[in-house]
Backbone:
């Protein structure tokens, strides 16, 4: 099943890598360069999935955006996968407490990213 995916990442090379990885899966892919732009895109695009960096410039970071999106049912309750270099146990815990559905460390395997995306929503009771 194809998903509308929003990549929110401030590094163009990483956005490009993610896009190239996901284009083989025939998803509807959109991009934002920071959490502020990402929030606007969530409101207009209503993505099913956010691929979200944590550390970004702007008035909020990825954890702030994750909390906002997960706490506002009017945004469609998209899945959130955090893609970050922050791999300490307290970072992972903070990401999951913010509402993330998955947490992948950079550098990530493109195959692991695809596997994670394909797994989301396959648990009974979960819906986009």
Residues:
């Amino acid at each position: 099943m194809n998903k509308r995916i929003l990549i929110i990442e401030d590094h163009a090379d990483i956005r490009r890598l993610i896009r190239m990885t996901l284009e083989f899966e025939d998803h509807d892919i959109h991009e934002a360069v920071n959490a502020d732009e990402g929030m606007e895109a969530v409101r207009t695009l209503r993505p099913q999935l956010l691929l979200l960096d944590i550390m970004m410039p702007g008035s909020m970071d990825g954890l702030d955006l994750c909390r906002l999106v997960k706490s506002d049912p009017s945004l469609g309750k998209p899945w959130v996968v955090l893609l970050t270099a922050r791999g300490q146990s307290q970072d992972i815990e903070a990401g999951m407490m913010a509402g993330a559905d998955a947490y992948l460390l950079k550098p990530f395997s493109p195959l692991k990213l695809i596997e994670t995306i394909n797994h989301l929503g396959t648990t009974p009771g979960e819906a986009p």
Remarks:
- Residues 123-128 have pLDDT under 50 and may be disordered.
